[in-house]
Amino acid sequence: MFSTRPVTPASRIYWQDFIVKKTAHIIEYGVFTILLYRGFTNSGVSRKKAAAISIILAVLYGLTDELHQSFTPGREPRLRDVGFDTIGALLAIHIVWKLLPKAPAKLKNLAKNLQIN
């Protein structure tokens, strides 16, 4: 939905605008990847395969989103944004695999209730 709207600055200062927008890319695609991962693992796909498929799908979706923006007035497709989307996808799987097992019990229980494990 956001990629159909013209770009509005998050800040008048370039580097602040850049940080806000690229952080949003990372968070959005991180959440998207975790949801994909959750769906695949809960349907019987192995964790490793689910992670790989989720990352690939997130990156492919990022590419198609940038393609879509090339047809939207006021938007510019940027390969750099796909890079930030990829970082978000990789970071999400890293968090689920490496950091979540070391997290406090309360956070682990939340992840278990959300079926992210």
Summarize the structure.
By secondary structure, the chain is mostly helical.
Topology of this protein?
Layout (H helix, E strand, L loop, with lengths): L13 H28 L5 H23 L9 H21 L5 H9 L4
Keywords:
117 residues; mainly alpha; 4 helices; 69% helix; 0% strand
The gyration radius over C-alpha positions equals 16 Å
Largest sheet: none
Unreliable segments of 5+ consecutive residues: none
Alpha-beta classification: mainly alpha
**How much of the residues is beta strand, in percent?**
under 5%
How many helices does DSSP assign?
4
Q: What distance lies between the first and last C-alpha atoms, to the nearest angstrom? A: 29 Å
Approximate helicity band: 55-70%
The total strand number stands at 0
Provide the number of structural domains. Answer: 1
Describe the 3D structure.
The protein has 117 residues and is mostly helical. The protein has one domain. It is 69% helix and 0% strand. It has four helices and no strands. The chain has helices at residues 14-41, 47-69, 79-99, 105-113.
